[in-house]
């Protein structure tokens, strides 16, 4: 079976702040930007690698979500427990330095994990946990 990840979605409650994080700090390219104001869907991805994209979307915008569910989502986002993503790089220390210098909120500095991965962690402007793994 030939399956790849084409798009994944992360909530973004401040489109401009999220755009600055993913475009300016992570270096992702903007592939699409639709909607307006707080109701924007911004598609970003690694520059020059069109295969996988992240869609930054307004949280709880689905009309099928109840008010209680919407409150829960926003509360979890505020705590940083709603969504996460793991990225990989061949230069963890360099990427960490660029992200820290760009003002990204550091959660964990580069660390050798007991499960055999060297990684670090940040939060994006919406509170999403972004982990960055070292790959050979």
Order of helices and strands: EHEEEHEHEEE
Low-confidence stretches: none
Head-to-tail CA distance between termini: 26 Å
* Largest sheet descriptor: 4 strands, mixed
Number of strands: 8
The portion of residues forming beta strands comes to 35-45%
Structural class: alpha/beta
Query: How are the strands of the largest sheet arranged?
Result: 1-4-3-2
What is the helix fraction of residues, given as a range?
25-40%
The overall pLDDT average reads 94
Total DSSP helices: 3
Molecular shape: globular
CA-atom Rg in angstroms: 15 Å
Plain-language structure description:
The chain is of the alpha/beta class. It contains 3 helices and 8 strands; from the N terminus they run βαβββαβαβββ. The strands form 2 sheets. Strands 1-4-3-2 form a 4-stranded mixed beta sheet, covered by helices on one side. It has a 4-stranded mixed beta sheet with strand order 5-8-7-6, covered by helices on one side. Strand 3 and strand 4 form a beta hairpin. It is globular, with a radius of gyration of 15 Å. The mean pLDDT is 94.
Sum this structure up briefly.
With 136 residues, the protein is an alpha/beta fold. It contains three helices and eight strands.
List the helices and strands and how they pair.
Elements: E1 7-11, H1 15-25, E2 28-36, E3 39-46, E4 53-57, H2 67-79, E5 84-89, H3 92-101, E6 105-112, E7 118-123, E8 129-134
Parallel strand pairs: 1-4, 5-8
Antiparallel strand pairs: 2-3, 3-4, 6-7, 7-8
